[in-house]
Write a structure and sequence with these properties.
two-stranded parallel sheet; 335 residues; globular; binds tryptophan
Length: 335
């Protein structure tokens, strides 16, 4: 049997080129090898997104983005976390074997506390909701509920997956061998794309290149990428701008080599790079953009797709949860 790979996508921003290169494309590349379960972690987003219209919109945008970029529903079970409510019961149960100190050490939580302290804010405890604090427990439940073997994530989520391992092992130690202990699979970090201002492309920096912008907006955003003041005919450092990275990720190695040589040899201006990058991306995105537009104009269709995914995932969730319930001493319910 193929091993199961599961990953969650937190819907907190409109999908951008960095998401595609860094997360969507590598995850789609795994789907031929693994039994892939990919889901939209909408209740994880609820720890920070408190506008109901926005939460729905972002959930649909993320689902539409993955579908538009080539997610094949015959290969992947795609669902929305909150459509599989068994996860919340498992989350509570795992919370009961999770030491509080383990949560204190979670990077994401520590980062929030550090940032609040940096701003000199007092009463950090009042601003960190319990959802944020218990975030790794729900994430462990996501993983364990589906008996996942492998969890492909970026480096920033590796510790959370380690926590899931710890909780699965601890549960098994106390209640018997019921849970699959997952393994982390860290994506190569080579594909960190720089944004418009030269920092990592990220929604929180407001420096992103949206994946599904119309051509004119795409061009305008590419034009606004920061480049240094090297003259058109001077040698340039290709890696100094995210545009070259984007070009390289999409173009063939041969095309990339040519552009690199031209930049380094002072035969291509930054403006020239902007033009070729736009041409390449605009062409690459013609079909995905159309698919994305079609999906977003019919939210009912996205809703149906996600529900169908949940229908496939739920029987397994119910099954695992039944075994968990039995092992903790709660008699199973009639199914
Ligand atoms: N925390 C992950 C992120 O922010 C999203 C996520 C939620 C996840 N549940 C998961 C990832 C389970 C992998 C497995 O990117």
């Amino acid at each position: 049997m193929r091993k199961r790979a599961l990953t969650g996508i937190k819907p907190t921003g409109t999908p951008h080129v960095g998401n595609y290169v860094g997360a969507i494309r590598p995850a789609l590349a795994l789907t031929s090898k693994y039994d892939a379960y990919y889901f939209i972690a909408d209740y994880h987003a609820l720890t920070t997104v408190t506008d109901p219209v926005e939460l729905t919109q972002l959930t649909y945008e993320v689902a539409a983005a993955w579908l538009a970029m080539g997610l094949d529903l015959n290969e992947v079970t795609l669902y929305r976390q909150s459509d599989v409510p068994e996860v919340f019961e498992l989350s509570w149960i795992l919370g009961c074997v999770a030491p509080k100190g383990l949560m204190n050490r979670a990077h994401a939580y520590k980062a929030i506390v550090a940032e609040a302290e940096r701003q000199g804010r007092r009463g950090v405890d009042a601003t960190v909701n319990m959802g944020l604090y218990g975030y790794p427990v729900l994430m462990a439940a996501d993983i364990i509920l589906m008996s996942s073997d492998v969890v492909p994530v970026g480096q920033d989520q590796a510790q959370h997956v380690e926590i899931a391992r710890d909780l699965a092992e601890k549960f098994n130690f106390i209640f018997g061998d019921v849970l699959t202990v997952p393994q982390v699979s860290i994506r190569p970090t080579a594909a960190t794309i720089l944004g418009r201002d030269g920092r990592k492309m990220s929604k929180s920096f407001g420096n992103v290149l949206p994946l599904f912008a119309e051509s004119d907006e795409l061009l305008a955003t590419i034009r606004r990428f920061k480049t240094d003041s090297t003259a058109p005919d001077e040698p340039k450092e290709p890696e100094s701008t995210g545009l070259f990275q984007i070009y390289r990720e999409i173009a063939s190695p041969g095309e990339t080599e040519k552009v690199k040589d031209a930049l380094e040899g002072g035969r291509m201006s930054w403006m020239g790079l902007k033009d070729v990058t736009f041409e390449l991306l605009d062409h690459f995105l013609v079909e995905p953009r159309q698919r994305y537009r079609d999906l977003m104009s019919d939210p009912g269709q996205i809703r149906r797709i996600l529900l169908e995914g949940a229908e496939k995932a739920r029987p397994e969730a119910v099954d695992l949860l039944a075994r968990v319930r039995t092992s903790i001493g709660r008699e199973d319910y009639e199914r």
